[in-house]
Amino acid sequence: xxxxxxxxxxRAERGIPEATVARLPVYxxxxxxxxxxxxxxxxxxxxxxAAGVNSAKLRKDLSHLGSYGTRGVGYEVEYLVxxxxxxxxxxxxxxxxxxxxxxxxxxxxxxxxxASRGFRVAGLLDADESVIGQEISGMTVExxxxxxxxxxxxxxxxxxxxxxxxxxxxxxxxVVAAGVTSVLNFAPxxxxxxxxxxxxKVDLSIELQILAFHEQRKAGGPxxxxxxxxxxxGNGRASGYVEAVEA
Length: 247
What we know:
alpha/beta; Arc Repressor Mutant, subunit A; Rossmann fold; 3 domains; disordered C terminus; DNA-binding; cytoplasm; DNA binding
């Protein structure tokens, strides 16, 4: 069993809800911002405001980590960063491979925040012969034919899929068969994976549709827009939002 799987099992045994796990990176980002400002301690109210949650929810989330703060003082920022980082598995480096180096893949390869958060991009792969051999952010794009070899040789733990939708499932199948159990999917398609494989899907179009829905509500009130304008379905709900939720 890998260290990542051990942590997942330990979280389950301690009863840490998945919703709490999903908020931990948000708290960590807020704490890093406090560190950058030289803040040594922070109250639950201040940290909650920085993270965009209510303070009661934050205190409950952090209690799952065994961190309760000190009355009248709050939380020690540096120690809380360590606690959350340890819980998320960020006290060690995670090796990442990015598959698909179109515009999105290139942007991800050039993102400077990976290294400072415990992630090391060790491979860029693509099937397009015209980009094989190109240098992107100090790395050479390699052919997708070497996928399994690269995963094994470099100890890849997480794969980012930024391919066109038509290729994503095939790529995912190969990645899983090679032993990777964590996938971040940017392709506009739902991937099918076996039990024990974690997939996080990032779909910018859905997020934009949800924001558009809220903009409509703010401008047009609870009853939405005129259906004749094409912005709302027959039941008065924004059609884009319905599609996003049902997806």
